[in-house]
Amino acid sequence: MSDAVLETLIKPLEEFFLPEFVEEIAINRPGEVWMRLHGARVPWVAYPSEKLSKQYLTDLVHTVANVYERPFEPTRGIPVVYATLPGQHRFTAITGPNVMYDDKDVTGGIALNIRGHFSKEIDAFESYHLKQGEQLLKVKPRKKNRPKDPFERLMQAINDGSPILFSGATSTGKTTFLNHILTLIDQSSRIITVEDAREIRVPQKNRVHFVLSRTEQNNQMTYARVLDLVVRMTPDVIIGGEISTDNASVMWEMMGTGHDHFYTTIHAESAEAAYAAFADRILHTQPAYNRSELIEEMKRKLSVVQLSRDGALRAVTEVV
Asked: Which of the chain's termini has less CB crowding within 10 Å, N or C?
């Protein structure tokens, strides 16, 4: 299949990603495109477009995969496509059972990003506020002093964008509590979740849900591939599913990608046990880590909210 076919097929999207004021576009479901604007106070803006049907988007992804000879087979193989489109525009897409927007995506959905190539000549140093003789800017510096009040500690972690681990036994309400935390996040934020089953309810409209079922996974999508995918899709908030042996090392790596607001859950009876359980699950697949050093690094970087239950009583018992 020739580049000319792809250039024709991509035209309905060009009006969204070619303008120089557009940094990138994201499509989370058919019929709607989100545009990320350079320097805008509210960076993501949504536009409806009937041209962007599921069939059109699916044909586009398959065409990109064929033109660039990418291994792509959503049901049994690799459901992700990465490519550089004509004009040096970066293309990322996934289709099939691993991606959803809502519960209607029973057969799987589609999500894609196109990052526009900004051709206008700019002063890179000036645009990044790097000037001789001037101090570097502190962008979203995190507060060093932690409040004594546990409620204020939690709110500080949320406002700072610090990663948070929600810990507790079964039926302590970890997911319910996390769902409430999401209502406190800016409604214009872009949310990406990674779960083994759809449980997290995201009120923000700019969202994508990735699903890696532990019991029904048939294709070659892995947590490592999810990590590559998530960081290319420009999330403002990343929510991981429950920490397990399979995903612990990837979840820990995601926390180190520089993205704010990373939230996940784990089964543990205390905050101290949560750090230990997280580390032990990482060590199952990454034994080269030093356990004590890993736990200490977690304590420096990761807040824990411990939830406990006694009969019908549920309560937050630790915020560290």
From this structure: N
12, exposed or middle or buried, with CB in 10 Å at 0-12, 13-18, 19+? middle
pLDDT in tens, 217-232: 788 898 889 889 998 9
Q: What is the pLDDT of residue 70?
A: 93
Q: Provide the pLDDT for residue 143.
A: 65
Sign of CA dihedral 155, 157, 161, 164: negative
Q: How far apart are CA 77 and CA 257, in angstroms?
A: 27
What token pair was written down for 77? 């193989």
Q: What angle do CA 235, 123, 15 make, to 5 degrees?
A: 50
Average pLDDT over all residues of the chain? 90
Rounded-to-integer distance, Cα 291 and Cα 160, Å: 27
pTM above 0.90, yes or no: no
Average of pLDDT values for 82-94? 92
Eight-class DSSP state of 201: -
Contact 62, 68 (CB under 8 A): no
Integer Cα distance of 113 and 57 in angstroms: 12
Q: What is the pLDDT of residues 159-186, one digit of tens each?
A: 989 999 999 999 999 999 999 999 999 9
Q: Cα separation of 73 and 220, whole Å?
A: 9
